[in-house]
Amino acid sequence: MSVQFHSEMDSISEAIKRASEKYNLDTAVIFKKITGLAEASRYEQSLLYALNQISMEEPNWTFLAANLYLTEIYHNASKIRGYESERKYGDFYSLIAELTSIGIYSEDLLNDYTKEEIDILCTEIDPEKDHLFNYIGLFLLSDRYLAKDYEGNLYELPQERFMIIAMTLMKNEQKDKRLLLIKEAYWALSNLYMTVATPTLSNAGKSFGQLSSCFINTVEDSLDGIYLNNWDIARLSKDGGGIGVYLGKVRALGSDIKKFKGNSSGVVPWIRLINDTAVSVDQLGQRQGAVAVYLDVFHKDIMNGFLDLKTNNGDERRKAHDIFTGISIPDLFMKKLEEVDGSGRSVGEWHTFCPHQVKQIMGWKDERGNPLSLEDFYDEFDQNYFSEKYQEAVDNPLLPRKTYRAMDIMARIMISQLETGTPYMFYRDEVNRQNPNKHLKAKGRTSIFCSNLCTEITQNMSGSNIVKEYTDEEGNIVIVRQPGDFVVCNLSSINLPKAVKENVLERLISIQMRMLDNVIDLNSISVGQAELTNKKYRAVGLGTFGWHHLLALEGIYWESEEAVSYADKLYEEIAYHTIHSSMELAKEKGAYSTFNGSEWQTGRYFERKGYKTAKWIELREEIAKYGVRNGWMMAVAPNSSTAKIGGSTDGIDPLYAVEYAEEKKNFKFKVTAPDLDHNTYNYYRRSRHVLDQTWSIRQNAARQRHIDQAISFNLYVRHDIKAKDLLHLHTEAWRYGLKTTYYVRSTSQSEVEECEACHS
Fold it and tell me: Would 122 be classed as within a structural domain?
């Protein structure tokens, strides 16, 4: 046998022995099975056996499978990079130089760092941290995120990816403290205390792609606005971003165009155009584009095709199966659902209007004389701005409308949700009331019209317009656009079980917020107005995953007051450290540009939250003096893929099952609950479709109190749920002050294809 063959056999034996000793596994069968097999067969049969052993009785076999998989990863990397595999990791500088030379890495790494600095950082790379991964986490990281060449050959190893991310995000820091900050960022990543958003995880340090997760655009009611939106969607989708689109300003079916009555085709054809763009312009060749389209429940097209876009019944020429839908809902609509007659039948009427006709007939104007429509108002705490305008519209006999029973609209919403999982619910009044940056609009005027693809982002929005088109002196045609607020979300998430149990939240959030803030300056976004908005507000979204995992470790049942109380306490602590870190960054680098007049500056934000303890009062005073670096700071993303990389449970969701098969396009693995043993089993055993969702809503309400943006919050229901029970869940979510809800996932749905950009 060759030296290389013996080396590989030793690696496999070492992996088996290590896992056997650490997790008390009976690996004798593996040794017996692989005796006498060829090199490839020996590895494959060992891995297959380990994977097949994973069960709720033997969950730790996943770590043996991960150890075996590491031997393959190390072997492949060493082979392509030309070093002995028993070293596990090769020379870090040589890796950077080679991947830069073939165009995978950006030249910035070699330009910004000396060889001496890179060699110092190489000594920080700790291969032992690779053993923190379970099998599915290591597989996903290797399959999707580690750098490969154009032929698909693996170059990069897990700890090198983490170090490259740290170097990329810290490259513009002051040189006298830069290496220390890189080491701190590497500490956070390599210990799996946190994850970065998937675009950052995949693209940091590379010569292509951008670092942000999602974008949200407001489409103006013009041909220019509609097609500029489509162009922007195409460019962002190409770079891997998920898109949220607000179409509530676009005129409805049958409205006039240039005073010619009945000519408008409404929003559905434009949504089909967006759908085709999402399919045609894929994300870096890996998956089709992902777009969510939002419409107001008072828009005339809501019942004229919008709610049926993804369903399987009706005219296929008015379908858009590849986009996602969301509905913007005012408090008044939810109140109308509660209006009943003497027999208990819901009788609340709901009127829908064309926004263009509202502008024409109602004559509402802003301070600059621009026409306003219903979507431009929301109900504040102290005044019903939207409700009053809505009633004015209802009372105007000249304004066309379509009238429905509010409950009939809600029934259509719920039917679509049970079939397709969508539409998402966006509670517009609560979102705008809680917005810390509403000072940039007149009181009662809407700043936020919708959320993003995963419903956790709520930031100021406005459309852009072409103001002129001309030919310059050189004969070039120049189009001048007036930019609006084109929302960008920059995400990162705390691995709750690891960070909380190891008591590192304060240290972790400090470096995590710096990493997030640096993404804003480092990012290269192809849409100019998104770039401007990103730097105007410097908004970030620090989130969490592993909530159910943490509850199990803490011995707290999901359906309990203790879980609700714990969510309130923990997320207040996270909020404090997050806001404090942003204040410290503002001390060092300056506050975001529109800080003055915001609720951060006036202190109104802290009053609304009821933060009255000494530490909060002190922080409020420091913020009034120094500002905060980021206009928005917290948002809880779905965290599916990267939660698996972190070895924990998705986002804030309950576990799917104690044992189940995780299946995607290129794999199917058995997975068990993390840290499953006789102590944690009872806290996992009631799976997500069995748990009383009211407890999930109450937990999320406690959590939402401390989150300045929103939360990707799924409702899990049985396929045979009664309409009144699903309605109850929606009304409870609204009453408890949730800003958004994400999918309604029923037991009859096949797995919904989600955008992975937000799975930070």
Answer: yes
Q: Residue type for 385, please?
A: Y
Structure-token pair, residue 420 = 């397709």
- What's the rounded Cα separation, in Å, for the pair 276 and 287? 14
Domain-located, residue 109: yes
DSSP 399: S
What average pLDDT values come out for the chain (760 residues) when binned by 10 residues? Answer: 50 85 86 71 84 93 95 94 89 98 97 98 97 96 95 97 98 97 98 95 92 94 93 88 94 85 88 93 68 98 96 90 97 97 93 97 96 98 97 98 98 96 98 98 97 97 92 93 94 98 98 98 92 97 98 98 98 98 98 98 98 98 98 96 95 95 80 96 94 98 98 96 97 98 87 53
What number of other Cβ atoms are within 10 A of residue 715's Cβ? 22
Q: In what order do the strands lie in the sheet with 541-545?
A: 194-196, 491-495, 541-545
pLDDT in tens, 68-114: 999 999 999 999 999 987 789 999 999 999 999 999 999 999 999 99
Q: What is the pLDDT of residue 753?
A: 53
Structure tokens at 86: 């028993």
Tell me, what amino acid is at 168? T
Cα distances (angstroms) measured from residue 561 to each of 45, 207, 575, 699, 732: 48, 49, 21, 9, 16
Per the structure block, which two tokens stand in for 570?
Answer: 């923990």
Q: What is the Cα gyration radius of the chain?
A: 27
Calpha distance 110→106 (Å, rounded): 8
- Domain residues for 39? 3-188
d(CA 377, CA 387): 9
The alpha-helical segments, DSSP class H, found in 421-495 are 428-433
List the structure tokens of 396: 């105007």
In single-letter form, the type of residue at position 395 comes to D
φ/ψ (deg, to 5) at 122 = -60, -35
Element (H, E) at 201: helix 198-203
Distance of alpha carbon 9 from the chain centroid: 42
Give catalytic residue positions.
452, 454, 456
C-alpha span between 712 and 707 (Å, rounded): 12
Single-letter amino acid, residue 342 = G
Beta sheet of 740-741, edge-to-edge order: 487-489, 214-218, 242-246, 291-296, 324-329, 424-427, 740-741
Residue count (the chain) = 760
Does residue 664 lie within any of the structural domains? no
Number of folded domains in the chain?
1
Q: Residue 144 and residue 286: Cα distance in Å, rounded? A: 9
CB contact at 8 A, 681 and 575: no
CA 187 to chain centre: 23
C-alpha torsion 695→698→699→703, nearest 10: 170
* DSSP H stretches of helix in 348-401: 355-362, 385-395
Other Cβ atoms within 10 Å of 480 Cβ, number = 10
In sequence order, which residues have a C-beta less than 8 Å from that of residue 568 and are 6 or more positions away? 702, 703, 705, 706
**Helix/strand/coil (H, E, C) string of 455-521?**
CCCCCCCCCCEEEEEEECCCCCEEEEEECCCCEEECEEEEEHHHHHHCCCHHHHHHHHHHHHHHHHH
Contact 492, 515 (CB under 8 A): yes
* Token pair of 160 as six digits: 């090198």
Q: Which two tokens stand for residue 612?
A: 């009255």
- Establish if 345 belongs to a structural domain: no
Query: CA 353, CA 357: separation in Å to the nearest integer?
Result: 8
- The CA–CA distances, whole Å, from 602 to 436, 439, 441, 491 equal 10, 10, 16, 26
Residues contacting residue 716 through CB under 8 Å, at least 6 positions apart: 653, 654, 688, 689, 691, 693, 696, 745, 746
What CA–CA distance (Å, rounded) separates 724 from 731?
A: 10
At 730, list the tokens. Answer: 């929606």
